[in-house]
Design brief:
alpha/beta; Rossmann fold; two-stranded parallel ribbon; 5 helices
């Protein structure tokens, strides 16, 4: 088990790709903190991990809210120690032509995808620096959603995530923190409204 003794924090770990990533990290031996907004989805993911003989806790948190993100990090450190791995998988989908997107919808997408990634990563950095490094993995746009009509808010926010990762990678390299973006292939998920 390559990740034995490591702690992984996965936002958006309650379902879909986030759940699959959480299960994969647990399979490799990591203690996993599953963060999401749905207590039921969190409980199911934690159960799946624990049923496989690995350790996990669930934390109900909205990555758009700084106080909830800070509490998430506190609970992570209390349960398993500082995270060695951060995966920002919290997401929301919106499939609408630009002219049909209202400001609140646009803000929800950007706040979840870009601001949520920023807040979670920023809160994680001091813990990773203190332990001498770590790995941050941000989810970019799935390859089947890149510059596709109807996905302007989603794709624009994911471009911001990629830009954030590029800058953070350069800033944090000296601290032993790697920052990367993963562009998954297409996958089925219930996050897409308007489908």
């Amino acid at each position: 088990m390559r990740l034995a003794g490591k702690t992984a924090l996965v936002t958006g770990g309650g379902r879909g790709l986030g759940r699959a990533i959480a299960l994969g990290l647990a399979h490799q031996g990591a203690a996993v903190v599953v963060a999401a907004r749905s207590a039921d989805e969190i409980a199911e993911t934690v159960w799946l991990i624990e049923d496989s003989g690995q350790r996990a806790i669930g934390v109900e948190a909205d990555v758009r809210d700084l106080a909830q993100v800070e509490r998430l990090l506190q609970e992570t450190v209390h349960a398993f120690g500082p995270p060695h791995i951060l995966v920002t998988s919290a997401g929301v989908g919106l499939r609408r032509p630009v002219q049909e997107i209202d400001e609140a919808q646009w803000d929800t997408v950007f706040d979840t995808l870009l601001k949520g990634t920023f807040l979670t990563a920023r809160a994680t950095i001091p813990h990773m620096i203190a332990q001498g490094g770590g790995n941050m993995l941000f989810l970019g746009a799935p390859l089947d959603k890149i510059a596709v009509p109807g996905f302007s808010a989603y794709y624009s926010a994911k471009c911001g995530v990629e830009g954030l990762a590029k800058v953070m990678a350069k800033e944090l390299r000296r601290h032993g923190i790697n920052v990367n973006v993963i562009h998954p292939g297409g996958f089925a998920d219930t996050a897409w409204s308007g489908d």
